[in-house]
Amino acid sequence: MNTGGSVLLLVLLLVPLVGSLAVAPLRNDDRAAKRVAFGIAIIELTLAGVAWAMYSVADAAAGTRFQLEFAYPWIPAFGTSFALGVDGIALVMIALTALLVPIVMGFSWEEKLPEGRSAASFFALLLATEGLLIGVFAATDVFLFYVFFEAMLVPMYFLIGRFGGPRRQYAAVKFFLYSLLGGLVMLASVIGLFVVSGERLGEGTFTWAELQRIAASVPESTQIWLFLGFFLAFAIKAPLVPFHTWLPDAGAEAPIGVGVLLVGVLDKVGTFGFLRYCLPLFPAASRTLAPLVLVLAVIGVLYGALLAVAQSDLKRFVSYTSVAHFGYIALGIFAFSTQAFAGSVLYMVNHGLTTGMLFIVVGMLIARGGSRLIADYGGVAKLAPLLAGTFLLAGLASLALPGTNSFVSEFLVLIGSFPREPVYTILATVGIIFAALYILWVYQRTMQGPVRGTAVLAALGGPGDGPGTMLDPAVAVKRRGVGFPDLSKREIAVLTPLIVLIVGLGFFPGPVLDVINPSVAATMSEVGLTDPVGGVSR
């Protein structure tokens, strides 16, 4: 029995999960597996568009916390139900997920997989990951959220461990253990919430709305312990320093497409969790522990930027830039203003687009040269000007150049954080200088100057023995004489949606902010603080 009134979110959840089961058996027909998987991803994107159209900003502004709700009694004895619903924050994250998956599939269409691995398994795992991510963002029952939070580790573990680079097993196990540890600690807090709700309501529940209703009456000392369990899991996922060390390894060893989902969406589960669970369910603890989180956020901005400058591996470089960006997102969340909240949520979307594009362009560069080392490239702009141009656009968007999408979100975070947390905001602003340094440094070394680098010269058939270190098994070991072509039509098609959104949201962020603003205003009210800025922005 559907007690919620809409099955759209249930369909959004089931389409990729059922689709993964349909694609997996097609092991002997890679072409069919890819076409079926891509078709399912396009259907999912269409359904996400329908959900966006059905979502009412006016109703959200009038106080409706969740829309498109679906609920079915799951384990009544434990007070849990299979409950789904979206607010503006969840909706934009679902839309981002649905957008990136077909783009990842388009990029991975001609990617050479490790020997003995089938395209059917790879694309099926991508669809399974998509479905579980939708579940994470749409769940309105805390226990259901926890189930999806843990379950999404499984397909990602296999995507990294079976299809990644030379150290894929190490990276996959490290990713899994870090995330599992955080999840187990969070489970203790989930159980604690159930016990506390039983004491307050006379009957335990996992329903988010009921738990939020009693949040203010829970003693602060109890809130702090429960908050820490959720916070640790989300800080690992985000990742915040010092819980970030799994990301560079996982990002470096994951296939490019998997890396896009890893840094573009899966990491956002952590910052989404801060907004959906930590702040509304533990308002007093959030206010008390905010200075600690702000210190970690600023350290992340500066530390991630400095480590990005020091990288010699292109994929690890992109991973460390994400550590810095997540510091800004956490700063905006724990600065407690609707403007900073809105900036952080928009930053989550924009980071998925810009870093996703940067990861893809890096993958295209590696596919041509066969090496992940920055020193193995030089003068690429002379050989592949479109590739160099897209690299520059993604890099400039990553450093928040005005006119790109990231500028709007970063500006909102900083201007919204300053009234309440001026010191932390000023320190974080220094990270902008480092961002310009590491982006332009890598671009200058790989794209500008004379044609050089063993990867480039070997691809052109010049002197040398090929790339200094062949780190990626997804490309052929022998690169001599294969050329260094510019972007193909398929690659242009993959990048075009990202380019359009990066530029479009840089000038017209209003449609996304309109969806976000009522939800961040509701979150601000649930935290129990007045807005130091005085409202949200468009």
UniProtKB/TrEMBL annotation:
<dbReference type="InterPro" id="IPR001750">
    <property type="entry name" value="ND/Mrp_TM"/>
</dbReference>
<feature type="transmembrane region" description="Helical">
    <location>
        <begin position="75"/>
        <end position="107"/>
    </location>
</feature>
<feature type="transmembrane region" description="Helical">
    <location>
        <begin position="36"/>
        <end position="55"/>
    </location>
</feature>
<feature type="transmembrane region" description="Helical">
    <location>
        <begin position="143"/>
        <end position="163"/>
    </location>
</feature>
<feature type="transmembrane region" description="Helical">
    <location>
        <begin position="379"/>
        <end position="403"/>
    </location>
</feature>
<protein>
    <submittedName>
        <fullName>NADH-quinone oxidoreductase subunit M</fullName>
    </submittedName>
</protein>
<feature type="transmembrane region" description="Helical">
    <location>
        <begin position="423"/>
        <end position="443"/>
    </location>
</feature>
<dbReference type="GO" id="GO:0016020">
    <property type="term" value="C:membrane"/>
</dbReference>
<feature type="transmembrane region" description="Helical">
    <location>
        <begin position="348"/>
        <end position="367"/>
    </location>
</feature>
<dbReference type="GO" id="GO:0048039">
    <property type="term" value="F:ubiquinone binding"/>
</dbReference>
<dbReference type="GO" id="GO:0015990">
    <property type="term" value="P:electron transport coupled proton transport"/>
</dbReference>
<dbReference type="InterPro" id="IPR003918">
    <property type="entry name" value="NADH_UbQ_OxRdtase"/>
</dbReference>
<keyword id="KW-0812">Transmembrane</keyword>
<dbReference type="GO" id="GO:0008137">
    <property type="term" value="F:NADH dehydrogenase (ubiquinone) activity"/>
</dbReference>
<dbReference type="GO" id="GO:0012505">
    <property type="term" value="C:endomembrane system"/>
</dbReference>
<feature type="transmembrane region" description="Helical">
    <location>
        <begin position="119"/>
        <end position="137"/>
    </location>
</feature>
<dbReference type="GO" id="GO:0042773">
    <property type="term" value="P:ATP synthesis coupled electron transport"/>
</dbReference>
<keyword id="KW-1133">Transmembrane helix</keyword>
<comment type="similarity">
    <text>Belongs to the complex I subunit 4 family.</text>
</comment>
<feature type="transmembrane region" description="Helical">
    <location>
        <begin position="175"/>
        <end position="196"/>
    </location>
</feature>
<feature type="domain" description="NADH:quinone oxidoreductase/Mrp antiporter transmembrane">
    <location>
        <begin position="139"/>
        <end position="432"/>
    </location>
</feature>
<feature type="transmembrane region" description="Helical">
    <location>
        <begin position="255"/>
        <end position="277"/>
    </location>
</feature>
<feature type="transmembrane region" description="Helical">
    <location>
        <begin position="224"/>
        <end position="243"/>
    </location>
</feature>
<dbReference type="Pfam" id="PF00361">
    <property type="entry name" value="Proton_antipo_M"/>
</dbReference>
<dbReference type="GO" id="GO:0003954">
    <property type="term" value="F:NADH dehydrogenase activity"/>
</dbReference>
<feature type="transmembrane region" description="Helical">
    <location>
        <begin position="289"/>
        <end position="310"/>
    </location>
</feature>
<dbReference type="InterPro" id="IPR010227">
    <property type="entry name" value="NADH_Q_OxRdtase_chainM/4"/>
</dbReference>
<feature type="transmembrane region" description="Helical">
    <location>
        <begin position="317"/>
        <end position="336"/>
    </location>
</feature>
<feature type="transmembrane region" description="Helical">
    <location>
        <begin position="6"/>
        <end position="24"/>
    </location>
</feature>
<feature type="transmembrane region" description="Helical">
    <location>
        <begin position="492"/>
        <end position="510"/>
    </location>
</feature>
<keyword id="KW-0472">Membrane</keyword>
